[in-house]
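Exercise 7.
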Amino acid sequence: MTAVAAPAHAETDRSSLRLLTAYRIISRFYFHLPVLFVLFYKRDLSLPVIEALLAVYGATVALSGPAGPRLVRALGARRTIALGEACKAAGLLLMAVPTVATAAAGQVLGGFGFSISAGPDAGLLAGLVPDPARRGRLGAVMQSWMFMSVMVAGVIGAVLFSRIHTAVLYCSAAAALLALVLVLAVREPAPAAPQGPRPAAAPAAAPAGTGWWSAYYIAGRVAALAPYVGLLPFLFFVRLEVNLAAIGAVLGLFTFAGFLSARYAGRIGERFGPDVVAPAGLAGTAVSLALFGLFPDRLPVALVAITLLGVFSGGVRPMAMAGLGRAGLAPGLQAARTGRLEQISGLVSTPVLVLAGFLLPGRFSALILAVAVVVLAFALTLLATRRAVGAAAPAP
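Solution. The predicted structure, written as tokens, is:
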């Protein structure tokens, strides 16, 4: 009996999936991210200017949102992502020039690049893996390795930064260019052929539960990333005086804990119910932020708190993506929503960072405790409304 050979397109899809996985991992080699605050601080910039520069990135991500879908329609997903990686590389190289203007321009380019590439890669994954359950499992694995790549790059970046400050920018730019090459090698799935005459487009209501999961995603991302980018580097480097070579390892606790959390978030959600685990994770994030505010001068407590922050926030993206799929959101709409949620998260983070510039150093505890209270209130609201919006209902 002759064995039947696998279809050529199936082998191509497996190869493309490996390339997409490699792209997602390498595109997160952010050697500069843990030390970006320190880089600006070493250039003798004031805290309001530093936080404003950090906020420019998030604001650009939000404001450039409409450009992404238009570019995907014009160029396709692969080329749009490649353009995004090119913009990120150019922005990083601009930031190597030590002026406020080039730093701001670099943040704008980087934010634009991230904005246009954040959604289409989810669209590529959805096209390569149509089954929502399998895609959710693969997404969780990918997310965990993305956390690991951020951690490894951050530790290496901190060591490089302690020797040559601009080396982290050049290494991150090189990673973005390598990611560009990888994504261009991915096979872009062809859109499904239309069946019969296409009816006039009408606004479609989002499936029940998508708003709930979207709110969870935004709250979880902002609660973790705004402090990670603009508040915790100040705490560890300026207030607790952690040395440069160690700061990457300290912040790496967040990403390592996030790696483990993303890896097992799906299983924990299935065991206890995703609509319970998600708000519980947000409540845990609030507790970890409160620890920073209540014990701002105790390094051991801060190390525990940053680890907990990674544990409770690491599963946000895979949990939310699986929840959107379970709610019945189509793969193409999931990709568009993912990009939009990243943009909204950047927009919400912007006033937090700008406010931090004016409240630091004297009001660190008050600011981070206020963020913790808001996050806890959000968690309780989501917990109270989970049944009403059908967050726990499985897709038919």
